[in-house]
Design brief:
Blueprint (H helix, E strand, L loop, with lengths): L4 E2 L16 E2 L14 E7 L2 E6 L4 E4 L7 E2 L9 E6 L5 E5 L4 E4 L7 E4 L8 E6 L5 E5 L4 E4 L7 E2 L15 E6 L5 E5 L3 E5 L7 E4 L6 E6 L5 E5 L4 E4 L7 E2 L8 E6 L5 E5 L3 E5 L7 E4 L6 E6 L5 E5 L2 E2 L4
Antiparallel strand pairs: 1-2, 3-4, 4-5, 5-6, 7-8, 8-9, 9-10, 11-12, 12-13, 13-14, 15-16, 16-17, 17-18, 19-20, 20-21, 21-22, 23-24, 24-25, 25-26, 27-28, 28-29
């Protein structure tokens, strides 16, 4: 759960009524243990590497991942799940309690743009098409949209998926293809798609019954989604039809990323890495001997692959 502070302990006054404590947002603690905290998202800000994770930890590297340091100021100790940048300075991070943060100095300091202490509906993913417009998605079909750089966010009401009475699926990863079409990987084998800048959304059923935790749009137009038990599904027609791609491994996929070289890399729990050199038609997998859960992936400016885990940045072998 998100780490928040209680303004006061619950007490029982003379009249017998229980006064409940109030939650308040607390700044992330500066601590050396942040370097070994679970990292849940990673991105590049120019030549800088930025990763985010539990307890509001934000780690920065200016030497292509050789060393990391903690950000100077993060105004929340809630777990952060996703981070994205539109340039070397401006970026956003999201997390539990619907937290949305913005930075304008490459991740050194962050400002709180949104939090909802009345409802613990975490945000799982954030994507910005430009410095002004972006989307964040999360628990129980929570989708937020901004057109002013996050100064304000509007909740988007989604239609229920086919066969459902209400929209209540978890939206796990939002991303866009080269044409600007938006996709969201979700539960129940569903993928959401918008062809009109998020004004309307449709559901695509891949034929899988489980959850997709991640997704990526490749340079050639291929769409990949992946998740539980090593499931990977591929579409070559903008998400109209989907085909199962077997890697031979059953570890749940937590991240999918296309490198500058065109190689597609997937990461998974139990130390599994997946590689495709044919735009996701086939994948080959390898498992680390330490089986450390891999949770985020990105690529440095010098095209070094950077992996993150439930115990921080992963040292390269």
């Amino acid at each position: 759960m998100a780490s928040l502070a209680l303004d006061a302990y619950a007490v029982t006054p003379p009249d017998g009524a229980v006064v409940k404590p109030e939650l308040s947002v607390q700044q992330a603690e500066q601590t050396t243990s942040a370097l070994s905290t679970a990292m849940l998202g990673a991105a590049t800000a120019g030549t800088r590497i930025v990763s985010v994770g539990d307890h509001g930890a934000v780690l920065l590297s200016d030497d292509d991942g050789a060393h990391f340091r903690q950000a100077k100021r993060v105004p929340t100790s809630s777990s952060l799940t996703s981070v994205t940048f539109v340039n070397e300075k401006t970026g956003w991070a999201v997390g539990q309690w619907g937290v949305i943060l913005r930075t304008d100095d490459g991740g050194d300091t962050w400002k709180l743009q949104r939090v909802d202490l009345a409802n613990d509906r975490p945000l799982f993913s954030v994507y910005f098409k430009a410095a002004s417009e972006g989307w964040a998605v999360g628990l129980w079909s929570l989708m937020l949209h901004t057109t002013n750089g996050g100064a304000s966010w509007e909740a988007i009401t989604l239609l229920p998926p086919p066969g459902s009475q209400k929209a209540d699926i978890n939206l796990n990863c939002v991303f866009a293809d080269e044409k600007g079409e938006l996709f969201v990987s979700a539960e129940r084998g569903l993928v959401l798609k918008s062809e009109d800048d998020g004004k309307s959304w449709s559901y695509s059923n891949t034929g899988y019954a489980g959850s997709f935790w991640t997704g990526a749009a490749l340079k050639d137009g291929t769409i990949l989604v992946a998740g539980l038990r090593g499931s990977i599904y591929r579409s070559s027609d903008d998400g109209v039809t989907w085909h199962n791609v077997s890697s031979g491994l059953r570890s749940s996929v937590t991240g999918m990323f296309q490198r500058a070289s065109g190689t597609v890399v997937g990461i998974a729990l139990e130390g599994v890495s997946l590689v495709s050199n044919d735009n996701g038609k086939t994948f080959e997998g390898v498992q680390r001997s330490d089986r450390i859960p891999l949770t985020a992936v990105t690529e440095s400016n010098d095209q070094k692959l950077l992996l993150f885990s439930d115990s921080g940045p992963v040292k390269q072998r």
